[in-house]
């Protein structure tokens, strides 16, 4: 009997521990899910379909430029419909998205062609959400990835340190080539 | 009286000459108008709004290339909706328009930027009208002009001599960069 009694007490203790573990696990999952949800909702979405948006302009950064290490190669700027309105009027409405597409280049017999994608830089206009940085949110996606984000709060501040100098042009450096 | 008579005859003769001249002038104007109408209707129209079409790909032609004299600088290819379908399927439907935008380049401190437009090259797909050249019509517009056409029947044949080698790809050399 004592064996059963002990077994009973032991089982009850195990169940209690299991219940605590289960609740802890549930709380952990809930907190993690909420944090993921919050992060996902806060994040600038990948600009799906930008390759068919209007092409604003292009430039090439060669080895002689101090920007070569980070930005070397060819880059093209694309804008969605609202972004285009911004280039026309000088004020980018909320919802404007601009994408800088950074590609490596290959050179052969004097002809430079486009190589693999290094990353894309994205600017999203939301004047309330990004009021600290001229109304612009900044994000970068590595290579062809739609999820590998490269921008931290600190690097976003750096983006704006440079873009923000273009006060007359709503913090946008590029111009739409006619 | 004789004076009047003579004058009458002389006037009549002048009127006759005037009538002949007028008819000749009218015929000339009609023939010229018809020829202009035929030419205008035959001509590939300037691809208005192509700067907001999808950007297919880009390349740079440098001084080391034998193509530099004619095509040196950066060029971008643009496609209308039907053209995009062609890049996806490999068969370009009638109405497809492709534009190659040739620009001079400027280089400073390792950064190459876009300069003035040299010309645009246009390809229009119309399988019946251009059955002799793979279904493609070819045209070029000088600089920013929408009327200064550079292509003759002879140069269009030259365009096709090269494009036509791309049999598997409906005579199109470029590919849509992902």
Give an overview in words:
Two copies of one chain form a homodimer. In chain A, strand 3 (97-108) and strand 4 form a beta hairpin. A five-stranded antiparallel beta sheet of chain A has the order 1-2-3-4-5. Chain A contains four helices and five strands; from the N terminus they run H-E-H-E-H-E-E-E-H. The first copy, chain A, has 178 residues and is α+β, with helices and mostly antiparallel strands. Chain A is extended. The mean pLDDT of chain A is 89. Chain A binds chain B through residues 51-52, 54-55, 57-68, 74, 76, 78, 84, 105, 107, 109-114, 144, 177-178, and chain B through 51-52, 54-55, 57-68, 74, 76, 78, 84, 105, 107, 109-114, 144, 177-178. Strand 1 of chain A pairs antiparallel with strand 4 (111-125) of chain B, so a sheet runs across the interface.
Key traits:
extended, 28% strand, 178 residues, homodimer, 5-stranded antiparallel sheet
